[in-house]
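Researcher: I'd like a structural prediction for the single chain below. Treat it as a standalone chain; there are no partners to consider.
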Amino acid sequence: MTHTSESPVQTGQAQINAPYDKSNWVALSANYEHAAAIDANGYVWAWGKNDKGQLGLGPGKADRYTAPQRVGTIKAVSVATGTFHTLIVDDQNQLWGAGMSAVGALGNQGMTAPLWNLTLLGGFTRMGDILEVHSKRDIAVARTSRGMWIAWGDNTRGGVGVDSNDDYITTPGVLFGVGNTVVQVSVGIDVGAAVTSTGDLWVWGDNSSGQVSAVAPAFIGSKAIDVTKATTKAGQWAKVAAGQTHLLGLTKSNTLWAWGRGNAGQLGLGEGMNPASSTPMAVEVLPYSGVKSYVSIEASKDCSGVITESDDGTRSLYLWGNNGYGQVTSDSDSYSYGWVPDQPIGSTDLPTWFALQLGDGFTTALA
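Model: Treating it as a single chain, here is the predicted structure.
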C-alpha cells in the first residue's frame, strides 16, 4: 500500500515560533540526535539535529537547533522520535510524520528524500484510529482505537515483531490483535517487548546477546521475528524497557531486573558484570526499600535509567551506563562508565521528575 498525504501539508514557520514555556511540558520523546515535547496546550516543540528534516519545520531551515522550535499548528496527544524522523498523533487520532527513514519508519514516504514538512501519513488508520505512538531508531509501534498494537519499520533483526522475514515493513502489521491484554509496549533498537495486564512478558527481535532467550529459554535462534512469550517470572512483570543489546524489566514486587549485554554498564550489575545473557539479574544499588513505584524505566543503546517515587511522594532520577558525554552524571570527567545506578549532579534538587528519555549520548528528563 502506498502512503500518500491525505490533506494539505502542515509546516512549522516563523509566525508560530513564539517563545516556549520551560514549565509547560507534559510529554517527551528523545532519540538518536533530536528530541520533541508536547506542551500543556497540545503543541509540539522539537530541537536537535534537523539535517534530514526530522524536526518538521519546513524546507530551508537550519540543520540543527539548540532551543525548542514549534512544529506545525496541530494539537498532539502523542509524539515519538527516531533516527532521522518524528511521528506525531494529533487530537483527531491521525498520524503525522517528518524527516527520513530509508527502512520504512514513515511508511512508504520519506524513504528516498526527506519530508521537510510535517506530513499527514496515509494508510495508518485502516486498523483503527491511532491513540499513541512509540519509536526508537527506525522501528515504530502504535496502539489503535480497535485495541490493536501495530508495528512497522526496520525488520532486519525481527524488531518489528509481526512474523515477517521482510527486511523493511512499510505497511503496518499487527503486533497484538483485537482482544489482547497488552498495557505497555517498549520498542528498542532491533528488539521489542510488551507487558500484559496479567503480568506476562512478550519479547521479540534480536537475540544476539540473549535479549529474548534470557527470559524465554526455550527459544533458539539469533532473532525472533514473532512475539515470544517469556516463561521466566511468568505473571510477575509490571513494566519493561527495550534498549539494543539489553532490556530492563520491573516485577510487581518493585524489583528491577536486567538482561542481555552490559559492556558499557547498561545492566547496572556492577563493574565486571558485563553479560546477563542466560537469565535476568537484579539491578544493584537502587533503594528498593521505601520506593512506592517506578514512574519510568528507560533503556537505550548503552544507557539505562529510572524515575522512582518514594512513600513520601518524592521522586528521584537514576542513570547508568555509558557516560562518555556526561549522559549519566552530567559530567563526562567523573567516569567513563556507570556500572551501577547514580543520580546526576543537581538532580536531587528536583523532587518532581515525571518523564525520562535517553538519546544517543544525551539524556532528557522533565520535572
